[in-house]
Design a protein that fits this description.
Helix content is about 40%, strand content about 30%. By secondary structure, the chain is an alpha+beta fold. The protein has a single domain, classed as Kinase associated domain 1, KA1 (TATA-Binding Protein, 2-Layer Sandwich), CATH 3.30.310. Strands 1, 2, 3, 4, 5 and 6 form a six-stranded antiparallel beta sheet that branches. Strand 4 (about 100-110) and strand 5 (about 115-125) form a beta hairpin. The longest helix is centred in the N-terminal third of the chain and has 22 residues, at about 1-25. The relative contact order is 0.18.
Length: about 150
């Protein structure tokens, strides 16, 4: 009987360590997948105002339109309709008639450090659904936001 308890305690310890490691994993360079967000980037030592200005500048420079009411509470909504240039930048799936919406959120994670997260949605059958299409392009844009925020 004592042997079974010993085995059970080892199994419980193994499972507890597995749960802790999966929930507290290292973030690395700031890119990670979060619930509801496809991409995020950690930005250090840049004021929030500079980060928000950089988000608007970078996404508008890439052809996105900022939706009315964006920027309140650190959340920005951008939309872009597919075209020839969009197909070149995002891929074959982003042609005429396709509408891509990006939600970009700025949150302060600790003093002097912000996380810029983005979620991509594509319009399908009159509703927007989360997609991973275009995530490589948005990752590039978030990298530009990080660089520009440090320069502003």
């Amino acid at each position: 009987m004592f042997k079974n308890w010993k085995n059970l305690s080892r199994i419980a310890l193994f499972l507890a360590v597995g749960v802790l490691l999966s929930g507290c994993g290292a973030v690395g360079d700031g890119d990670q997948t979060r619930s509801g967000f496809l991409l995020s980037r950690k930005i250090e030592f840049a004021p929030r105002y500079n980060i928000e200005r950089a988000i608007i500048t970078v996404f508008q420079g890439d052809g996105f339109e900022i939706l009315p009411g964006s920027g309140t509470s650190g959340t920005f909504h951008f939309v872009r309709e597919g075209d020839a240039l969009g197909r070149e930048r995002f891929g074959e799936w982003f042609g005429p008639g396709v509408l891509l919406r990006v939600k970009v959120t700025v949150t302060e994670v600790e003093f002097g450090t912000h996380r810029v997260s983005s979620a991509l949605e594509i319009r399908r059958e009159d509703q927007f659904v989360t997609t991973q299409e275009g995530s490589r392009r948005v990752k590039v844009l978030l990298g530009r936001v990080k660089k520009l925020a440090g320069l502003l």
